[in-house]
């Protein structure tokens, strides 16, 4: 199969599953360091997973985001709210237009290397609070990328219509080692088990009927 | 008038004219340092123009572009082709999806500060070789930004339908000091007068019937 894609790889469950699922089409994986509490631990997982699969991995620094953007995700573990994603206080963790920025940079990388697609692992459960994860955002961003490049680069977001539980099931079939993924927004050595992303992670394993390999605090 | 906009300000003729034209609506001007030959001289002009108008100005570093992106604009003065923009060799100066990246970052800044619009000074003459200056790109990017933000941030690109000659006429009416703008892709102390952007600059002053205040080599 032709290697025609760049993937945006955070190092969390979703993008790591997509990395394994589409490994034969992925020429390059890109992680972004934007000063979030959990960035370093996530990126270490991303690097390890790319090493396992023999996929080139680069890290792009976006340090201006922690300097100029407003989000509790950029403000230290103490400011991260606990509870479900759907709760309105989780809105404070939104980093304005983060996916737009990551897709744009990945689009430029794709065009620089003659690749056709940017893969992103946004999924159904993300939509409630994150406007830049919704299907309509992905479609219009893909159209902007197509118009704005010579080669007509597009977004491939295969998980848009499925849930994190579906993703966990897919990953289990593919043999993904989820102990080498990191989600927690607090960014400490072990997952807190209480923030929105930890709650979602736990529920995905439980609802998929899988053992959760995560060490929680 | 309400200050509801961020402007992408390179420090060239076009964006400086837009800065003066819409100064009452602009809360923040943002320049991007991406390692192009002419970035430092451009940004110095951007800073000076914002100082004249009392508008806040920030510079966002995008240093990964010179590391990972392919473009003669990022490769030193010697690699810049000479002649008109329309000529196919000018394509080498395209920085892949640059306007998409700058619009995305400016969109995140706008949402972080409660601003509604991102102003960009792309114009009619740009379209021939730059896909990310065309009206269809601007429209789809604006739609992606609207979908991907809580406040529905949009792009305002008022010069899309006019030429650089029209822009020069507008600037002259507004009293813009074009000696404090920089265009040359070679990035040396004086404009080379021969690269695509210098040729276009000269022609704009000539066709507008204005004196060209630029010192050429």
Describe the structure in brief.
The first copy, chain A, is 38% helix and 11% strand. Chain A has helices at 13-21, 39-53, 64-68, 98-113, 135-147, 164-174, 196-208, and strands at 5-8, 26-33, 57-61, 117-119, 154-156.
Spell out the key features of this protein.
homodimer; 217 residues; alpha/beta; five-stranded parallel sheet; 7 helices; 38% helix; globular
Overview of the structural elements:
The structure is a homodimer of 217-residue chains. Chain A has a 5-stranded parallel sheet, sandwiched between helices. Chain A is globular and about 45 Å long. With 217 residues, chain A is an alpha/beta fold. In chain A, helix 1 crosses helix 6 and helix 6 (164-174) crosses helix 7. The model of chain A has no long low-confidence stretch (mean pLDDT 91). The first copy, chain A, has helices at residues 13-21, 39-53, 64-68, 98-113, 135-147, 164-174, 196-208; strands spanning 5-8, 26-33, 57-61, 117-119, 154-156. Chain A binds chain B through residues 58, 60-61, 63-65, 68-70, 94-101, 103-105, 107-112, 131-132, 134, 136-137, 140-141, 143-145, 147-150, 153, and chain B through 58, 60-61, 63-65, 68-70, 94-101, 103-105, 107-112, 131-132, 134, 136-137, 140-141, 143-145, 147-150, 153.
| Residue windows where pLDDT falls under 50 for at least 5 positions of chain A | none
Helices of chain A, by number, come to 7
Query: How many extended strands of chain A?
Result: 5
Overall morphology of chain A: globular
Largest interface (CB < 8 Å): A-B, 41 and 41 residues
Order of helices and strands of chain A: EHEHEHHEHEHH
Strand order of the largest sheet of chain A: 3-2-1-4-5
Mean of pLDDT of chain A? 91
> Gap between N and C termini of chain A, in Å?
42 Å
The proportion of residues in beta strands of chain A is 5-15%
Radius of gyration of chain A: 16 Å
Please give the largest β-sheet of chain A. 5 strands, parallel
- Structural class call of chain A reads alpha/beta
What does the oligomeric state look like here?
homodimer
Helix content of chain A: 25-40%
């Amino acid at each position: 199969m032709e290697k025609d894609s760049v993937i945006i790889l955070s190092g969390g469950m979703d993008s790591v599953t997509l990395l394994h699922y589409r490994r034969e089409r992925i020429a390059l994986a890109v992680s972004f360091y934007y000063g979030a509490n959990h960035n370093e631990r996530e990126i270490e997982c991303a690097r390890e997973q790319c090493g396992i699969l023999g996929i080139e991995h680069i890290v792009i620094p976006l340090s201006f985001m922690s300097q100029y953007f407003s989000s509790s995700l950029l403000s230290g573990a103490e400011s991260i709210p606990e509870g479900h994603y759907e709760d309105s206080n989780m809105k404070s963790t939104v980093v304005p237009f983060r996916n737009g920025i990551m897709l744009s940079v990945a689009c430029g990388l794709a065009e620089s290397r003659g690749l056709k697609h940017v893969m992103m692992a946004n999924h159904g459960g993300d939509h409630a609070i994150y406007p830049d994860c919704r299907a309509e955002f992905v479609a219009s961003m893909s159209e902007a990328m197509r118009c704005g490049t010579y080669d007509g680069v597009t977004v491939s977001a295969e998980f848009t219509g499925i849930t994190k539980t579906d993703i966990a099931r897919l990953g289990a079939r593919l043999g993904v080692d989820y102990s080498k993924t990191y989600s927690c927004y607090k960014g400490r050595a072990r997952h807190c088990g209480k923030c929105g992303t930890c709650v979602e992670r736990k529920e995905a394993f439980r609802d998929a009927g899988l053992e959760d390999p995560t060490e929680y605090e």
